[in-house]
Amino acid sequence: MTDHRLRLGVNIDHVATVRNARGGAYPDPLRAAKLAEAAGADGITAHLREDRRHISDADIEGLAEALSVPLNFEMAATDEMQAIALRHKPHAVCLVPEKREERTTEGGLEVAREENRLAHFIAPLRDAGCRVSIFIAADRPQIEAAHRIGAAVIELHTGAYCDAHAEGRFDERDAELARLREMSAFAHSLGLEVHAGHGLTYDTVQPIAAFPEVRELNIGHFLIGEAIFRGLDPAIREMRRLMDEARG
Ligand code: PXP
After folding, report:
1. Fewest 10 Å CB contacts: which of 28, 73, 96, 124?
2. What residue's CA is closest to ligand 1, atom 15?
3. Is the CB of 205 under 6 A from ligand 1?
4. At what angle do helices 57-66 and 29-38 cross, to 10 degrees?
């Protein structure tokens, strides 16, 4: 495997969403994570939200103990989450914005506006050996700020591109894609590792997977939905196949 293989991080949050709809123990996100590993996921992503609407503290504990692939722990930049991250020391911590009223992570983090606070916030995480990733819009000032605060990784928000595709706004989709392409090259030129994700599907993954600077995609909701129809293992394998095909 070359160093430049595009990695696939599978986000298992929505297995927990289905479990929590009934409040019981199944479907078990940890079982999904192990299955995803076996299907070729290079990492597992889980977002512990402040309101615990899907992933729970116990899920994070279980994942941190049981995974053989890296855990990418998504969290808001709060003291509570920092303490949890420092307890588990996951491979990666991805900082995301969080609003209680949103259905999903709607935009990227405003790094430029909070540069000093975030620089202090990530320092102990870096010292603990976590790779710090910042989830941001494909926006030059945000990328520059992420670089200045010492993040190792940025994850570019692909939501606007995917929404434009789904709603048939193809000119906008193409403009978003061009912006993502330009900004992934820019971030790479600063020495940042570039990841991307949010809203990706079989229809939208390939143009993003083809960006040579992108090293990892994080994909969740679509894969968990697709698993209803074809099973989680084949759903992940098909995503992997499309990524490899786009990568050439
Ligand atoms: N990357 C980040 C930073 C996210 O917050 C999410 C959603 O939790 C994803 C990737 C995955 O998005 P989706 O579930 O739409 O594939």
Report:
1. 124
2. 199
3. no
4. 30
Pocket of ligand 1, candidates 218, 223, 226: which has the most ligand atoms within 8 Å of its Cβ, to mutate? 218
Instruction: Report which protein residue has its CA nearest ligand 1's atom 7.
Output: 198
Q: Tens place of pLDDT for every residue, the chain, 248 residues?
A: 345 789 999 999 999 999 999 999 999 999 999 999 999 999 999 999 999 999 999 999 999 999 999 999 999 999 999 999 999 999 999 999 987 667 766 778 999 999 999 999 999 999 999 999 999 999 999 999 999 999 999 999 999 999 999 999 999 999 999 999 999 999 999 999 999 999 999 999 999 999 999 999 999 999 999 999 999 999 999 999 999 999 98
Written as one letter, the residue type at 26 is Y
User: Residue ranges per domain, the chain?
Assistant: 7-247
13 in a labelled binding site? yes
